[in-house]
Description:
There is one protein chain. The longest helix is centred in the C-terminal third of the chain and has 21 residues. With about 500 residues, the chain is of the alpha/beta class. The chain is globular and about 85 Å long.
Amino acid sequence: MTQGDATQLVQILIFGGRGDLARRKLVPAIASLARRPQGGAQLQVVGIGRSGMSDDAFRAWLRGFPQEGHAEAFDAIAPQVHYRSADVQDLASLAKLRAEVDALAGGAEVARLCYLALEPRLFASAVTLLSESGIVHRHRSEDRGYRRVIIEKPFGHDLASAHALNEAVQRVLNEHQVLRIDHYLGKETVQNLLGFRFHNAIFEPVWNRHHVELVQITVAETLGVEEGRAAYYDGTGALRDVLQNHMLQVLALVAMEPPASLDAEALRNQKVEVLRALRLPDPEEVARSSVRARYGPGAAQRGYLDEVGVAEDSTTETYVALRAEINNWRWRGVPFLLRHGKRLPKRFTEVQVQFRMPPLQLFNRPPDMSDAEFDRALHNGALCLIRPNVLTIGIQPRETIGLSFGVKQPGPEMIMAPAALAFDYRERFDDAPPDAYERLLQDAIAGDATLFLRSDEIEASWRYCDAVRTAWSEHGAVPLHEYPAGTWGPAAADELFRGCEGGWTRG
Length: 507
């Protein structure tokens, strides 16, 4: 890991400075970081948009964001917050912007971090013109005066567009200068997957196909399509909006091999290997192993087709469930069940690692069943016992870890009952974890790329999702189900569990 000189001034240019992301997430995160300077680094913020606005008016607009503690933190950094107008699609406009930001405190040699909070279609041209204008340039040094660019998701809309965007960016910048952000990787519990797996030796011997029956990853949302976002979402859908990025990143952290070190490249190498090992399903398998659906009217909520901005003939999914497999030595044959949906009854993100049953079932036999009948029922699936050992990692809204196990129920008979061990971040550390954007911006300033995505990582995840999406669109083998808003999704998704594997978690 290479870090910049911590004593220098860091200039953060936010392209899309008048947008919702800048106001709700980026500036509050920067203000929080400024309260605890990174080893002495000073932060300077420049919001950039096409419309004109004075520094004072921009500061007043940012200060109006109603978040607890934001006003005090923002007031401390406000003198270092500026606004400049520029068009990222116009070279002359960016050349003028370069002169203006070079004239601010720190001068032209200031360390510069450009955050592209823009429409995805502008990413490639924006990076190209930022380079041509001199605002950023190919930079070998990671010390004083560095130049880095943060690119928001989505990074492409399929493999071909992601590859083209990678090529466009790499024509003008080195890979270490490009930080492809996925805010899920900034969440404390997602990062703790690394610590939990590779610090606690008791889990590593059982973290494989011999002991793990299946892994569930769920991202459930109660919201539908937010106002103003329907036009974007209707051309994207659940698979590309959440599963391709957030969920496959979590999968990679759960399934990766131990890295040789915590160096960014060592960690990212192992994540890429997992994503490359995802078995690309053919159309027949996609029909058996995937479910797509959209929410309809229900629970006093309107259906997806009634949302403002959604096309009348839309076939976009708001729910996706997949049964994926990883073709490597550790995980061959273990299903990874991925589920994401909007307008579900509860908001939560969770990973469940379900361990196999002991080879011989000694307990909880029905009293009227002989040993032979009990054994036959277990083997043919007529009787399913609840799996006693499940590791549950809660990512949001609360950061938790739980482990279930069986204990003997009091009484003369050997009847096992469920019990659990539980850990809660907030209770243990008496504070909420820092915001994901705060952590990621801190790492971007320091030059630590561990929690950012590499070009081959992006392309490997798109390769898998493209195989699913192509089968959906070209072969018609996977119908678009509908589920009432406020319910747990289509019943067809339950069929992705086979035999006695169980069912979807409900948080």
